[in-house]
Specification:
423 residues; globular; Peroxisomal Thiolase, Chain A, domain 1; alpha/beta; 2 domains
């Protein structure tokens, strides 16, 4: 066992920072998931008016000055908040950290749309005179902005990347960090995903034109994965970033460990711009299991991607049925039903919301599941109320996105005697 603990290929999560529409810390987020509290509210957006959205309420000025916030972006502000919370939670002595050996890997769905829409709106008031265009526009809209703002705020001089992977981006951020740590390109990684999507009217307009934007008289019931009466996506913002380290390094400094990333995979459907493909999703899940050197029988919770679109839900259920069969001890849950679809942050938030199950052995529910679609009739889906499990040692997290990008991440519990925070 000692040799295994000294293995630098083992990568662990040692700090967590997040903001979600129903919580700005892991404890608050988890409590909301177990209590069935949604974070979806009415939201007014330009040209469209009232829509439904998952809106975050974190303190933007906890780690930023007002001048810095004005110059930067909402995605950057979310990233800065989450990164600082993760570093603080990690117990690292930040002043002693060699920041040239720190990497920042932030998954995003898209970036720059908000700022471009805002600038065009402003110049429209001046007969489209481009002289009033902000000189801050370029650094605000470059793709690496969210990760770059973190490096500026925390004075990190190591590499940074914003990873565009559609709605698979949260997992992709973690995967990039694992790879860079294993390659010894960095000694500490800040990784996960962020989204500012609700601040662009274009995303709402596009989903509405597809007939895929959810509506409901009660905003908290709008996002309905697997339910026969679902009617589309609820767009959300949010962020979830973690500190990741090699296990020997984490043990050497006595870090608390939330879990170990033991497997991951990404692949492509190569079939359609928007429509998912169950067979490729199943391949991605199997590849992650193979890399983790575990079987489907070893997975206790599957955190589903399901967006509450008909085809998306059905295809994922087909993939899960193909890989996991009807094993009754498995729990399948969904976080979007609480907060909507946080796009680039979705996978990261959904993973983190499940990590405390290592301690309390509860799979949080999929809420708003009143009449299960018979094509999504998996008996393992946890409906409306949490389910207590006999064992939670391994969590598998699905995240899929447009252009047919699929990602899967598998996290395993670390026992307390080896630094695990969960007993």
């Amino acid at each position: 066992m000692q040799d295994s603990l000294n293995n630098p290929e083992r990568i662990v999560i040692t700090g967590v920072g997040l903001t979600a529409p129903n919580g700005d810390s892991l404890d608050d987020f988890r409590a909301a998931l177990l209590d069935g509290r949604s974070g979806v509210v009415p939201f007014d957006t330009r040209y469209i008016g009232d829509v439904l959205a998952g809106v975050c309420n974190f303190d933007e000025f906890r780690y930023q000055k007002r001048k810095e916030r004005r110059r930067g972006t909402r995605a950057g502000s979310v990233s800065i908040y989450c990164a600082n919370e993760a570093v603080r939670d990690s117990g690292l002595d930040w002043e002693q950290v060699d920041r040239s050996r720190v990497g920042v890997y932030v998954g995003t769905t898209e970036h720059g749309n908000v700022e471009t829409e805002n600038e065009i709106f402003e110049i429209s008031k001046f007969d489209y005179d481009t002289s009033v265009w902000s000189h801050h526009h370029n650094p605000r809209t470059v793709a690496n902005n969210p990760a770059g703002e973190v490096t500026l705020n925390l004075k990190i001089t190591g590499p940074h990347l914003a990873i565009g992977a559609a709605c698979a981006a949260g997992n992709a951020g973690f995967i990039q960090a694992v790879q860079m740590l294993r390659l010894r390109e960095v000694d500490l990684a800040i990784a996960g995903g962020v989204s500012e999507s609700i601040h662009t009217f274009g995303i709402f307009a596009s989903f509405a034109s597809q007939g895929a934007l959810a509506r409901h008289d009660d905003p908290t019931k709008a996002c309905r994965p697997f339910d026969v009466n679902r009617n589309g996506i609820v767009v959300a913002e949010g962020g979830a970033l973690c500190t990741l380290e090699r296990l020997p390094d984490a043990l050497a400094r006595g870090a608390k460990i939330y879990g170990e990333i033991i497997g991951y995979a990404m692949n492509s459907d190569a079939s359609d711009f928007v429509l998912p493909l169950a067979s490729r999703q199943a391949e991605c899940i199997r590849l992650a299991l193979d890399r983790a050197q575990i079987s489907a029988e070893d997975v206790d919770i599957v955190s589903s991607h399901a967006t509450a679109t008909e085809q998306g839900d059905i295809e994922e259920c087909e993939a899960l049925r193909e890989v996991f069969g009807d094993r009754s001890s498995l729990a399948i849950n969904n976080t979007k039903s609480f907060i909507g679809h946080a796009m680039g942050a979705a996978g990261a938030l959904e993973l983190l919301g499940n990590l405390p199950a290592f301690q309390d052995r509860q799979a949080h529910a999929t809420i708003n599941l009143d009449e299960q679609d018979e094509r999504c009739d998996l008996p393992q889906i946890v409906a409306n109320y949490p389910r207590r499990l006999e064992r939670v040692e391994t969590i598998l997290n699905n995240s899929f996105g447009m252009l047919g990008i699929n990602s899967v991440l598998i996290v395993r519990k670390i026992p307390p005697e080896h630094g695990g925070v969960y007993e």
